[in-house]
Amino acid sequence: MKTLSYRLGHHLLGIEGLALLRVGSSVDEAARQRRVDEIRTLVDRLEEPPYSASREAPAVHTEAGYAAWASSYDAPGNVTVALEQETVHELLSELPARSSVLDAGCGTGRHTGFLVENGHDVVGIDSSPEMLAIAKAKVPAAAFELADLERIPLADDCFDAAVCGLVLSHARDIQPAIAELARVVRRGGRLVISNPHPFATGLLGWRATVTDDAGRLVVIPEHAHTHAEYVAAFTQAGLQVAACHEPALTRKQARDQAKAGLEEAFELALTGIPVVIVWDLVVSG
Fold first, then answer.
1. CB neighbour list of residue 44: distance below 8 Å, 6 or more residues apart
2. Rounded-to-integer distance, Cα 23 and Cα 28, Å
3. Residue 213's pLDDT is what?
4. Options 3.30.1120.10, 3.30.360.10, 3.40.50.300, 3.40.50.150; which CATH number does 59-249+276-283 get?
5. Cis peptide before 96 (omega within 30 of 0)
6. In angstroms, how far is the first alpha carbon of the chain from the final one?
7. Taking all residues of the chain, what is their mean pLDDT, rounded to a whole number?
8. What is the 3-state secondary structure (H, E, C) of the chain?
9. Are 266 and 205 in contact (CB under 8 A)?
10. Can you say how many angstroms the Cα of residue 12 is from the centroid of all Cα atoms in its chain?
11. Angstrom distances, CA of residue 235 to CA of 145, 171, 175, 178, 190
């Protein structure tokens, strides 16, 4: 597993470069010139604070990362979770009344709670005991089980629907987990899968980072999966794509990511960039 190495000045140069590319075809010469001027300033001052600030985050196994993250996972401010949850809950609102639903990789139970509140019978599974403990306390009406997505200890065709939120990016190969999810949902049932968008993980380099019990910043490894990878895995598992949603950063959300006072650069670079991918699927057999 690789250590994440981060230097603020290098990150800002990347943002400025992306902003310049995105504004390059516009007629706003002044905006392009501001990007060039800020790039020159950054290059000249890379060895000065705040641009010289750097940090390293060693990679840890998923279980260790989520054990450390469990107590703060539900804290507000995670834009990926906010964008994902709005879209996923909209899709889950369409489920028939009193559906039996599997929340696979349920974490702290954020989707579990929504489903229970809407009258569904829910089973949540997760590989993190720490995340499950929070979910059980938060949603006592649901059933929970410690389990791996690639080996779900439940019978074939036992759910009307399933949701798997922001989990599969931790897997190098998504096919085994997708096959298991398809196996436990009845033919004609619904499967909603969300993940960090491959643009965010593959090109922007966004990662899940957390401070562990020793006070170290650590990173949970993630893998960028292309649309083609998803479609191949869905086809092999007998799933049909009903829709694909790609929630993107708003102008305000892009500016909220800004560092070192470079709000305009972040706005130009990141507005409209998809950070989540949400698949709406039907089990066809």
1. none
2. 8
3. 85
4. 3.40.50.150
5. no
6. 37
7. 95
8. CCCEEEEHHHHHHHHHHHHHHHHCCCCCHHHHHHHHHHHHHHHHCCCCCCCCCEEEECECCHHHHHHHHHHHCCCCCCHHHHHHHHHHHHHHCCCCCCCEEEEECCCCCHHHHHHHHCCCEEEEEECCHHHHHHHHHHCCCCEEEECECCECCCCCCCEEEEEEECCHHHCCCCHHHHHHHHHHEEEEEEEEEEEECHHHHHHCCCCEEEECCCCCEEEECCCCCCHHHHHHHHHHHCEEEEEEECCECCHHHHHHCCCCCCHHHHHHHHCCCECEEEEEEEECC
9. no
10. 22
11. 28, 18, 10, 10, 15
Could you read off the pLDDT of 190-234 as tens digits, one per residue?
Answer: 999 999 999 999 999 998 899 988 888 999 999 999 999 999 999
Angle (CA) 127 95 163, round 5°: 20
In tens, the pLDDT along 133-157 reads 999 999 999 999 999 999 999 999 9
**What does the CA dihedral 151, 154, 157, 159 come to, rounded to 10 degrees?**
-110
For residue 21, give the nearest of 9, 36, 8 by alpha carbon: 36
Indicate yes or no: pTM above 0.85.
Answer: yes
Contact 6, 56 (CB under 8 A): yes
Question: Position of tokens 């905006």?
Answer: 31
Nearest to 161 by CA among 100, 85, 89: 100
Residue partners of 164: CB distance under 8 A and separation at least 6: 104, 105, 149, 177, 181, 191, 192, 193, 194
The reported pLDDT for the residue numbered 27 is 65
